[in-house]
Amino acid sequence: MLGCTLRGGSCPLVCLWALLLPLVSLHSLNQHGHRGRDVRDHPKLLLVSFDGFRWDYVDRVPTPNFHALMDEGVRVEKVENTYITKTFPNHYSLVTGLYAETHGIVANEMYDPVLNRSFSMETDSIYDPRWWDEAVPLWVTNQRAGQRSGAAMWPGSDVEINGTYPTRYLPYNASVPFETRVEQIIEWFSAPDEEAVDFGVLYWEEPDESGHNLGPESSLMDVVIVNIDEKLGFLRNELRKAGLYEKVNLIVTSDHGMTQLSPDKIIELDVYVSRDLYTWVDKSPVVGILPKEGHFEDVYSKLADANPHMMVYKKVEVPEHLHYKHNIRIMPIIIEAQEGWTVMQNRTGRFMLGNHGYNNSLPSMHPVFVARGPAFRQDYVKTSMRSVDLYPLMCHILSLRPLPNNGSLANVRDLLSPEPTTPTPSVPARVPSYSYAPAVGSLLGVVMVLGFLVVYIRQVTLKQLPSLPLRSREMSQPLLQEDLHL
Ligand SMILES: [Zn+2]
Fold it and tell me: Which residues cross the membrane (predicted)?
């Protein structure tokens, strides 16, 4: 029976094929649609942070690569970052659009009284997801939307946040050169369509480290800034070589600036209050003080008016506009040093010539911001923005629905090209390329059914049907009769 003849025995299979063909076509559509994102049309975005790159460094020494990006795209002169102006809080604000009190990374050094655990950027404590899970970074949102993300050393990007790692990422290792990070992330962007990332984050530790050690006023910083510009030049060249320069939207920014310190501007807390009465949680210039049980008022009263170069807040009295109050990881007493001043317990600790972390209204704390690419205007300078506005802007570029955040796309929409270069959401954009498949499949099915009918009618007119008895199975499948007859 399986040895069907062309004329009659093939009919059940032909019918089956004819009926299934359109479905097969549809199945192919779904399968293709699932794994075959049209990456060529989907927007791409690379967010780069040069840690501690102050906004005005680009005007201090020749920085041709930064200025090329400004000419080709946009510059924002004043970016108000989030309080406190430290590395971990601000990098998380950039990718969540949230203030520190909301995203939960409130400092580089933290204590969580519920977890009864401490966080330090110097230890493996950062790999505990519970510190990060109060927010969802953009790379996770991007992946939940079916896209792919790549992360090269961005703070927190090698942590399993909300149960998710970036699609591709490098575990943090400060000794990996900038050039290697760039080559890796460009490889991820350049992968075959179904493997390529759409969103990348890239981090470099300088000029922060040199800014701390030398002080931003040092003429030695000039060389450091020129070197960062050369690194940006390397990135631009690698993007060009990969054919990505005109396709990738490139944002170059930072977490904070840097200000000059002086050994003459030191506040020694031991002069005012015994260190036995409190735990020193976060470091200068915004210090988190956790009084020992029963000593809150005692510690506060001893510090409150102790030194004119520091503000001392009870947590509940921190000004609302700083958005640094509503989180249990913010300590009961907060000391904020005046710009340029250093808070220490005594002078035996490590002293730096440059620091950041001060009030985010200070220009010296503000980071650089330049961007270029198909989504951005050209040769456009904007006076100011808030760093939390970057998140909704990036979501817009990536056609992602932003999660609730503290930013506003309306505040930064003028950075975007007025031309309709922002592609429509990816799912509708994919449909047209597959729309012929079901129609072709159906047409082929109809043709084959008609062909079968012609053959069958011709056959029954030439042959006499066998008489009963036939089993009911065969009655319902008259096309089998020729084989059975044999
Ligand atoms: Zn930093």
Answer: 436-457
* Low-confidence residues of the chain: pLDDT under 50: 1-39, 421, 424-441, 457, 460-486
Strands (DSSP E) contained in 348-446 are 354-355, 369-372, 380-386
Q: How far is the CA of 145 from the centre of ligand 1 (A)?
A: 30
Say yes or no: 255 and 189 in one domain.
yes
Mark whether 87 is an active-site residue.
Answer: yes
CATH of the domain at 318: 3.30.1360.180
Does residue 5 sit within a domain? yes
CA 175–ligand 1 middle distance (angstroms): 17
Q: For the segment 78-107, what is each residue's pLDDT rounded down to a tens digit?
A: 999 999 999 999 999 999 999 999 999 999
Is 375 found in the same domain as 287? no
Instruction: Count the neighbouring beta carbons within 10 Å of the beta carbon of residue 361.
Output: 12
Ligand 1 centroid – CA 158 distance (Å): 17
Spatial separation of the C-alpha atoms in residues 411 and 374, rounded to whole Å:
20
Q: Is residue 50 part of a domain?
A: yes
User: Choosing from 82, 85, 87, 259, which is the catalytic residue?
Assistant: 87
What is the C-alpha to C-alpha distance for residues 315 and 322, in angstroms, rounded to an integer? 12
Q: Supply the mean pLDDT for the chain.
A: 84
Question: Which residues neighbour ligand 1 (ion) by CB within 5 Å?
Answer: 51-52, 87, 208, 255
Interval between CA 242 and ligand 1 midpoint (Å): 30
Domain of 1 in residue numbering reads as 1-28+446-462
Q: How many folded domains does the chain comprise?
A: 3
The verdict on residue 87 lying in a domain is yes
pLDDT at 419: 63
Q: Which pLDDT belongs to residue 473? A: 33
456 and 332 in a single domain? The answer is no
For ligand 1, the distance from its centroid to the CA atom of residue 22, given in whole angstroms, is: 57
